[in-house]
Design brief:
This protein folds into three domains: about 170 residues, NAD(P)-binding Rossmann-like Domain (Rossmann fold, 3-Layer(aba) Sandwich), CATH 3.40.50; about 160 residues, 2-Layer Sandwich (Dihydrodipicolinate Reductase, domain 2), CATH 3.30.360.10; about 90 residues, ACT domain (Alpha-Beta Plaits, 2-Layer Sandwich). The protein is about 40% helix and about 25% strand. Helix 5 runs parallel beside helix 6 and helix 8 packs across helix 9. The site of L-homoserine has 7 residues, from helix 8.
């Protein structure tokens, strides 16, 4: 198949079709890993893309503070600059691609590009999660397109799925494994029985995890992606402040082991649910039954399970980061803008469509309901276990199964690990029960509470 495509490409080049096509100029801000991937992709696929979309996409300028380092791609030095404004204000640049990241200079430059009437492609989840409203409004006022496919899921075109393929559905729920670093750490903890800190250090040494891993392991990167998905699904800008965020920092190996014995894997999940006139957005470590399709998503892979009211469950899986997968989605966005331009102008993609109706109410964390895994170090005295279960019962929390753990993990003779799985309970009731259990003196240390995906 690939050779057919190559022959076809050679044929196109021979015939010089690209020469006669409308040219769409691209300017790149940020020549890092993904930026270099986009450059390479646009170079390698230029003729093929031209044939597929009917326009010649030409890389006109690249701005980066460092224009000397080797990125593994050859570019004409004349197109490199350290001045982003030279890219934005170049009349031959139609589409500005922002791959700088963060909310500092990236925000200024995206706003500048939109004001200059340039359509924008960005992979910047933090920027859109925190300033999406302002940025999308400006894009509308400027009558240009803004595309952000690579902001969630890297090479998985999930943004496009929500905007296009599933647009006819009311979205019932979305469950996402959206951070490869966390999924890699959790997978190794489970498969090799390694402690969290050891895996994190190794991941940093291997370059998988950032030297400051907070954005990943404290759940914020997943939350940025979750609010973008929720905004796309429910048609209003979901602010970061409404997302309940809990990461995997310090997750104990003992809980990964107990969960596994009970038939679960622990995953950092983005959970987005629409129920009646309420929407819930949260990020938390979650027990996923081993036979659930998300349990088989291992290592750095991402996946999103979307349930539409018409489709039922649908699943999207792939590489959520990395040079080529992310470049693939960025190039897809550039091509969509090119198609719009050929068709006569921006499609006013409007970023996140705002529905005229009242936005749904955000469900507070304390009102959300789930089954729970609880692990407590219970005082090894007559009646302690009874006390603990009685307190749960008095708060309306019904226990489905409880077990006192024996074995190598039991090292402290005064406190023994006890694991309880609850029936569906309100988070507020669980919290109230745990507060009373703490105060009762029947446990040592902090109780561990992890939701179970049903
Ligand atoms: N740091 C993210 C991850 C990729 O580990 O998946 C960028 O959002």
């Amino acid at each position: 198949m690939y050779s057919i495509l190559l022959n076809f490409r050679n044929e196109i080049t021979r015939q010089g079709l690209v020469k006669d096509m409308k040219q769409i100029g691209v300017g790149l801000l940020g020549f890092g890993t993904v930026g270099a991937g986009v450059v390479k992709g646009l170079q390698e696929r230029r003729e093929l893309l031209a044939q597929k979309i009917g326009a010649d996409i030409v890389l006109r300028r690249i701005a980066d503070l460092d224009i000397k380092s080797d990125r593994g791609v050859t570019v004409d030095p004349a197109i490199l600059t350290t001045e982003a404004s030279e890219v934005i204000n170049d009349p031959a640049v139609d589409v500005v691609v922002e791959l700088i990241g963060g909310t500092g200079i990236a925000k200024t430059l995206v706003m500048e590009a939109l004001r200059a009437g340039k359509s924008v492609v960005t992979a910047n989840k933090k920027l859109l999660a925190e300033y999406g409203e302002e940025i999308f409004t400006l894009a509308e006022e400027s009558e240009v397109d803004i595309y952000f496919g690579a902001s969630v899921g890297g090479g998985i075109p999930i943004v496009r799925v929500l905007r296009e393929g599933l647009v006819g559905n009311a979205i019932v729920s979305m469950y996402g494994i959206l951070n490869g670093t966390c999924n890699y750490i959790l997978t190794r903890m489970e498969n090799e029985g390694l402690p969290f800190d050891d895996v994190l250090k190794e991941a940093q040494a291997a370059g998988y995890a950032e030297s400051n891993p907070s954005l990943d392991i404290d759940g914020f990167d997943t939350a940025h992606k979750a609010v973008i998905l929720a905004s796309l699904a429910y048609g209003f800008h979901v602010p970061m402040s409404v997302a309940a965020v809990e990461g995997i920092r310090g997750l104990a190996g003992i809980d990964v082991k107990f969960a596994s014995e009970l038939g679960f894997k622990i995953k950092l999940l983005a959970i987005i649910r629409g129920e009646g006139d309420e929407v819930e957005v949260r990020v938390s470590p979650t027990l996923v039954a081993v036979d659930h399709v998300l349990a088989s998503v291992s290592g750095v892979f991402n996946a999103v399970m979307v349930k539409g009211d018409y489709t039922g469950d649908t699943l999207y899986y792939g590489r959520g980061a990395g040079r080529k997968p992310t470049a693939s989605t960025v190039i897809g966005d550039i091509c969509d803008i090119a198609r719009n331009m050929i068709a006569g102008g921006p499609r006013h993609s409007r970023g996140i469509v705002r529905l005229p109706s009242e936005p749904p109410r955000m469900r507070s964390v304390s009102e959300s309901r789930s089954r729970y895994y609880l692990r407590l170090m219970v005082l090894d005295r007559a009646g302690s276990l009874g006390r603990f279960t009685t307190i749960l019962g008095s708060h309306g929390v019904s226990i489905q199964a409880v077990s006192q753990k024996c074995g190598a993990e039991v090292t402290d003779s005064d406190y023994q690990p006890v694991v309880a799985l609850t029936h569906v309970a309100r988070e507020a009731d669980i919290e109230a029960a745990l507060a009373e259990i703490r105060a009762s003196g029947v446990i040592g240390g902090e109780p561990v509470k992890i939701r179970i995906l049903d």
